[in-house]
Specification:
mainly beta; 2 helices
Length: 106
């Protein structure tokens, strides 16, 4: 079953054809509750933090990126594999759930 968040992302994020691809391997998602007031200064306007029981959440995603390439680029010349880390939190924008990616070292 697709969650409400997943359904909204599928419905509203696919307005244009894809321009690039990337495969994620050996993925690790780690989630932590964070006090709303601590995280709020790092979320730009006009986004509003999504909370559960008054707590905001931050997620760190570690993975190996493989086969990164632009849409019309042949797979034989894709970008070499590399390790990547995403740091994100969850927000609302115009009534829809979104994610905000934070620069590392925030």
């Amino acid at each position: 079953m697709v969650s409400k968040r997943g359904w909204l992302q599928m419905k509203y994020l696919r307005r244009w054809p894809w321009i690039a691809q990337q495969e994620w391997h050996d993925v690790l998602f780690m989630h932590w509750p964070v006090p709303y007031d601590l995280l709020k200064p790092y979320v730009p306007a006009p986004f509003t933090l999504e909370t559960i029981d008054g707590q905001a959440w931050i997620t760190v995603v570690l993975f190996e990126a493989k086969n990164s390439r632009l849409r019309f680029m042949h797979s034989a010349i894709s970008y070499p594999s590399f390790l990547q880390m995403n740091v994100r939190t969850y927000v609302h924008f115009n009534g829809f759930p979104k994610e905000v990616f934070h620069p590392q070292g925030m």
